[in-house]
């Protein structure tokens, strides 16, 4: 089973990724890999932040298959915000509840509540080459939180084709249709293609 090192300390995110690809890859979080420092996510885009995470862990390990991931909630009525600042929308160290409260306040009375979750995954392969993969899930922002599952903004994001939020849907449904699942599917297809190529 291929081992991929994941540049995240978010246990919820790592568990979700493992549930999506556990049949194919062994995902190793950065703490398990011995990386104890913090990674500054000061990029202006999801792509930059995903790369910063992957590069820091790759340099720490000195090689291997390393992925960095960043996800943003992009709200149409807010010109794509919070975007790269999704986890810090209400300020540094903000809780998920504080971030959701700020977003719901800004959208109070708004007729357009359309939004999307977008995930960008950066893969640095053992040769040091950098590859990018993207997954998008369109939906809308609920009027108020619903559901007890998931994490982050899941209680207020309703994916297209559903009437329940990510937090109210069964995990197996979310893991099939989510932005993260779609980005991981692109990554999976890329690695499978590499494995199927005949040796030179």
Explain this structure to me?
By secondary structure, this protein is of the alpha/beta class. The protein has a single domain (2-196), classed as Alpha-Beta Complex (Maf protein), CATH 3.90.950.10. It is built from five helices and six strands; from the N terminus they run E-H-E-H-E-H-E-E-E-H-H. It has helices spanning 11-21, 46-61, 96-106, 171-177, 179-196; strands spanning 2-6, 25-29, 66-75, 114-124, 130-141, 157-159. The chain has a six-stranded mixed β-sheet with strand order 2-1-3-4-5-6. Helix 4 (171-177) crosses helix 5 (179-196). The longest helix has 18 residues, at 179-196.
In short:
Helix content is 32%, strand content 23%. The chain has 200 residues and is an alpha/beta fold.
Quickly give the structural class: alpha/beta
From the N-terminal CA to the C-terminal CA, the straight-line distance is: 23 Å
Look at the structure and give the CATH class: Alpha Beta
Instruction: Tell me, briefly, the overall form.
Output: globular
Q: For the report, how would you describe the main beta sheet?
A: 6 strands, mixed
- Percentage of residues in strands: 15-25%
Helix content bin? 25-40%
Into how many domains do the coordinates divide?
1
Low-confidence stretches: none
Strand order of the largest sheet: 2-1-3-4-5-6
Could you tell me the number of beta strands? 6
Which assembly state applies to the chains in this document?
A: single chain
Here the CATH topology equals Maf protein
Overall residue-averaged pLDDT value? 92
The CATH architecture classification is: Alpha-Beta Complex
Secondary-structure element series = EHEHEHEEEHH
Radius of gyration, in Å, reads: 17 Å
Number of helices: 5
